[in-house]
Write a structure and sequence with these properties.
The structure holds two protein chains of two kinds. Chain A is mostly helical. Chain A is built from twelve helices and two strands. The chains are: A mainly alpha, B alpha/beta. The structure holds adenosine-5'-triphosphate (ATP) and magnesium ion.
Chain lengths: 265, 263
């Protein structure tokens, strides 16, 4: 228990100590929100698809959580290079506890970032609402925020664990670059964060269904602007999204624990 | 306390540690000497559960570190040859983290940390980030951390690397005191012959992955008919540079790794 806590604390402390980075890492999602939200807004509205800013806000919140959590896991690369990793590898505690602490710490930080992004979205004009027919926003639904927190947390855990699996495997910066381009960006762009997944070409549709983030974004968006009872905004549904994310979290956590336990230096 | 039998480590084609056998008794200070690339660090990594041996058997205080990992890990402390501190935390936080990982009860933890930080003259800087420390201060902190959980066996891999003469002197005084008071077994490597001569009860000389001689400093000198440990060392390991051979194999190994990753 102590080991999990102290490793968790290390991540959280590091977050609160690098305030500049907190702001910087919100920059990119904010740019997406404003540039795309307002840029594509008119086209989207003309197509009768509703308010694009409303649509994209859950997407950029998911994006923030994705990037923050997956990088926290990959930060293991730095610990490997600066040598601190060795200190945790020879400690007389199960390596499972070390990796759990790290992952939960990374997920906590990513969730906090997600909430900050939610606030940015609110400032930009986004409102959680009950859905009405044809996608026109109905009355405000502040109750959605705490439920959205479940999905923010689940996205954070899933990808912090995925990042930790990757971080336990790659050993150098080249590997990191490659993964960045061939893993993180596709996960983001193929998740439905930026566009609706309905009526996509067959192949693209299959790929999006294989993307873990798809279910996180769907859950977030469903909760924030789809309201539970109205399933039309949901690509899937609350239970399916949640169960899939839970299953993925279990799979990735076990994978990272297994990979971490095999590290040699 | 440490028993090693026919220990071997092979990296791809290259044999870094070749069938070594030795014992270190409880309470002994044992020095491992050898030219660069002899296999000292590789041996320590295998003893401390960081690297799986290709063949051979190890026992630390009766435990096989590859079977009873946690028991073995609780029993040793280690100062690595390369840095292993968390630069983004303060000196105190580094100690605290170590204390928690090694199950030191909260009541005694703070007290012991203070004691050690004072001993290594880091107490005034306890709340500074490690990244602001000089090389020698970092080294002292790592050594203090290695002492924190009062290990039964202390591995010191070139602990005096980068330390000034005062700190080196001080370190060995502390190590000898700890060894005398707590009967800590010490396993150290160094490239300073005078240090080994001064602190070690027994010395093993390693070259090309094999142990070429074991004994007290006097025994090694007598065996080689020399009047200093340095003379004995050179007589046993020759005077040619080892870095050349090591670094060309290194280069090939690195090239092979790159090649494998590209595919
Ligand atoms: N991960 C590795 N893969 C391949 N070869 C390795 C690896 N680690 C070490 N070696 C090789 O094993 C040999 C022994 O290295 P080791 O680090 O044990 O030497 P050492 O005795 O500690 O030397 P030094 O005094 O320079 O620290 C070297 O030739 C080194 O190149
Ligand atoms: Mg070495």
């Amino acid at each position: 228990m102590g080991a999990i806590y102290i490793m968790w604390l290390r991540e959280v402390k590091r977050y609160f100590r690098s305030r500049a980075q907190v702001v910087v890492s919100l920059g990119q999602p904010t740019l997406y929100l404003l540039a795309l939200g307002f840029g594509f807004g008119p086209v989207f509205a003309k197509a009768g698809a509703g308010n694009y800013l409303q649509f994209i806000a859950p997407g950029v919140i998911g994006m923030t959580v994705l990037f923050s959590s997956i990088f926290s896991g990959m930060a293991m690369l730095w610990d490997r290079q600066f040598g601190f990793l060795k200190e945790t590898l020879v400690a007389p505690v199960p390596r499972l506890n070390i990796i759990l602490g790290r992952t939960l710490g990374g997920a906590t930080v990513a969730s906090l970032q997600g909430f900050l992004m939610l606030i940015v979205c609110l400032i930009a004009g986004f409102r959680p609402v009950h859905a009405h027919a044809a996608g026109t926003p109905g009355s405000h639904n502040w109750l959605a925020v705490p439920i959205a927190a479940i999905f923010i947390g689940m996205i954070a855990i899933v990808f912090a664990a995925l990042g930790a699996s990757v971080g336990s495997t790659i050993k150098d910066m080249q590997g990191f670059q490659v993964l960045m381009n061939f893993l993180v960006m596709p996960i983001f762009f193929l998740s439905g964060a930026l566009y609706p997944l309905k009526n996509l070409p067959k192949v693209l549709s299959w790929i999006t269904h294989g993307d873990p983030l798809t279910y996180g974004i769907d859950g977030l968006r469903g909760v924030l602007i789809g309201s539970w009872q109205f399933s039309f905004k949901w690509q899937f549904n609350f239970m399916l999204d949640l169960c899939l994310l839970l299953a993925l979290a279990a799979i990735f956590l076990s994978t990272s624990a297994w990979l971490f336990s095999r590290i040699e230096v | 306390m440490i028993r090693v039998e026919n220990l071997t480590k092979t990296f791809d084609q290259f044999t870094a540690v070749n069938d070594i056998t030795f014992q270190v008794d409880s309470g002994e200070i044992f020095a491992f000497l050898g030219p660069n690339g002899a296999g000292k660090t590789t041996t320590i990594k295998m003893l401390t559960t960081l690297l799986r041996p290709t063949a051979g058997r190890i026992q630390l205080d009766g435990f096989d570190p590859w079977v009873k990992q946690r028991e073995a890990r609780q029993r040793f402390g280690i100062v690595f040859q390369d840095p292993s501190l968390d630069n983004e935390q303060t000196a105190y936080e580094n100690m605290e983290l170590h204390g928690v990982l090694y199950h030191i009860p909260h009541r005694v933890r703070g007290e012991r940390i203070e004691q050690l930080l004072r001993l290594f003259e880091l107490w005034e800087r306890r709340n500074d980030y490690v990244k602001t420390f000089s090389g020698g201060m970092k080294r002292r902190l790592e050594i203090a951390r290695g002492f924190l959980h009062t290990p039964k066996i202390l591995f010191l891999d070139e602990p005096t690397l980068g330390l000034d003469p005062q700190s080196r002197n001080q370190l060995w005084t502390h190590v000898k005191a700890l060894n005398a008071k707590e009967k800590t077994t010490v396993f150290l490597t160094t490239h300073y012959m005078d240090e080994a001569d001064r602190v070690a009860h027994r010395i093993a000389i390693m070259d090309h992955g094999a142990i070429v001689a074991i004994g007290t400093s006097a025994e090694l000198r007598a065996r080689t008919n020399t009047d200093s440990l340095e003379g004995a060392f050179l007589a046993l390991t020759g005077t040619s540079l080892r870095d050349e051979a090591a670094s060309s194999t290194d280069a090939i190994r690195r090239f092979a790794q790159m090649w494998q990753q590209k595919r």
